[in-house]
Specification:
Helix content is 35%, strand content 17%. It has helices spanning 6-13, 55-58, 67-77, 91-103, 122-139, 160-164, 197-214, 239-250, 303-310, 327-341, 344-360, 389-398, 420-438; strands at 29-34, 37-41, 47-52, 113-119, 147-151, 184-186, 218-223, 227-228, 234-235, 254-258, 282-285, 297-302, 369-375, 378-383, 401-402, 409-412. The protein is α/β, with parallel strands linked by helices.
């Protein structure tokens, strides 16, 4: 065993996400978590209590040590924690599928999402969705339709097929040039805050041209509806979802909505698709599905898609994770969805959104800041230049807030149980951290007070 404190031992053996294997990696030890707060210990022994502005990468919507979720997990542990899903079933998985179908986007005249495939993580759910789309096209007599149309600025995960439909410039295409499929990309939709009917129409025209040019090779269109997350926290008009639906139908493509980040209320509707009352053929969910307790995701599809693939030459969907339908994860997901079904999330998200909009407005007075925006329970400070991640993170901790910036963005997706005081602390901490680290010239005059 490596000597020294926990952080030193971590650096000697562990590899963290999007980070080098380095002895200088900035780390804080989590000693406890409760509600919306983390108790952190720095390498020098200094302790900080901070509000988790990230919901642990957008998943812990009900807070840490939630008594409802804790109790659900304990009850299932007394029965069994796992059993294989091949040839077997269990109540938590069946109940979860029923709940997801009941909650899924619905609209008059559009097919409902009726079949559920449980996966290990969001990236895996996207992999399954892409494989399903190709199998559907093959079973429909179009075996050459094996590519996808995605949007620039999109992010769909880190596994290979998922990487292949992420943004071709800001994604990881350059790191794996010989391994990622040659997909096609339409322009990013106009920003919601500045979009006009003309800009939406111009975007729709480019999308249609791209789809038309490659329709014989395309299996599906895949997008993050309304909000592109890790690709830049870019919110776009809900009308664009209706355009995507029409283009997919016109060219015989399936429409896949990646709701892994946006699902379960984050944008102000239960699913982002609900903003436009558009139902996709395939939908992926994850992250907040279990309230951040355990890794679990799901792929939902229409009855027609499921039947077509099942009747095809393969006779099955060609995927099967070892931990598919894990009972412990399913029972916690059911408890989390039960809390969401109570409807209180809607008022929580509206309350958080309004407070973030007001609390982050002063950041517009900083010379380093390009834009401040929000949608639902999401708040973003966009800088002109790249964020000094380590410095801004440390500064925010000193102000009582845990954030994880990326690119040129300092953002928050707080837990739904956050109080107004918590949101005020988050907004003030983010603004102060940016000011401390990135202000090199006086603030612009005329900014919000």
């Amino acid at each position: 065993m490596i000597g020294g404190g926990l952080i030193q031992r971590d650096r000697a053996r562990l590899w963290h996400p999007y980070a080098p294997a380095s002895q200088d990696l900035p780390l804080w030890e989590v000693e406890a978590a409760d509600g919306v707060r983390l108790r952190l210990r720095a390498e020098d022994g200094t302790r900080h209590e901070v509000v988790d502005a990230m919901s642990s990468w957008w998943s812990v919507i009900h807070g840490y040590r939630n008594p409802v979720l804790d109790a659900a997990a304990k009850r299932q542990l007394e029965k069994f924690s796992h059993v294989m899903f091949g040839g077997l079933t269990h109540a938590p998985a069946v109940e979860l599928a029923e709940r997801l179908v009941d909650m899924a986007p619905a609209a008059p005249g559009q097919p409902h999402l009726e079949r559920v495939f449980l996966a290990d993580s969001g990236s895996v759910a996207v992999e399954v969705a892409l494989k399903l789309a190709v199998q559907f096209q093959t079973a429909s007599g179009h075996p050459h339709r094996q590519r996808f149309l995605s949007l620039r600025g999109g992010y769909h995960g880190d596994t290979f097929a998922a990487m292949g439909v992420c943004d071709p410039v800001d994604g990881m295409h350059s790191a794996f040039p010989g391994l990622l499929a040659g997909n096609f990309f339409a322009p990013r939709p106009p920003a919601a805050a500045s979009a006009t009917p003309e800009s939406i129409q111009a975007w729709a025209s480019e999308l249609t041209k791209t789809a038309a040019a490659h329709s014989t090779q395309l299996a599906a269109i895949i997008v993050e509806p309304v909000l592109q997350g890790a690709g830049g926290m870019h919110a776009y008009p809900a009308e664009c979802l209706s355009v995507l639906r029409k283009v997919a139908d016109r060219f015989g493509l399936l429409l896949i909505f990646d709701e892994i980040a946006t699902g379960f209320g984050r944008t102000g509707e239960l699913f982002a698709a609900d903003h436009a009352r558009v139902v996709p053929d395939i939908m992926c969910v994850g992250k907040a599905l279990t309230g951040g307790y355990l890794t679990l995701a799901a792929m939902l599809c229409t009855a027609d898609v499921a039947a077509t693939v099942s009747d095809g030459s393969a006779g099955m969907l060609l995927h099967g994770p070892t931990f598919m339908g894990n009972p412990l994860a399913c029972v916690v997901a059911n408890a989390s969805l039960g809390m969401i079904a109570g409807g209180g999330w809607r008022a929580d998200v509206a309350r958080i959104g309004a407070r973030l909009e007001a609390g982050l407005a002063p950041a517009l007075g900083l010379a380093a800041v390009r834009e401040v925006r929000s949608i639902g329970a999401v708040g973003v400070i966009e800088l002109h230049d790249a964020v000094d991640v380590a410095a801004v993170t440390a500064a925010a901790i000193r102000h009582g807030v845990w954030v994880r910036p990326f690119r040129n963005l300092v953002y928050t997706m707080p837990p739904y149980i956050s109080t107004l005081e918590d949101i005020d602390l988050i907004a003030a901490g983010m603004t102060a951290a940016v000011a401390e680290v990135h202000e090199r010239v006086p603030a612009r005059s005329g900014g919000p007070a």
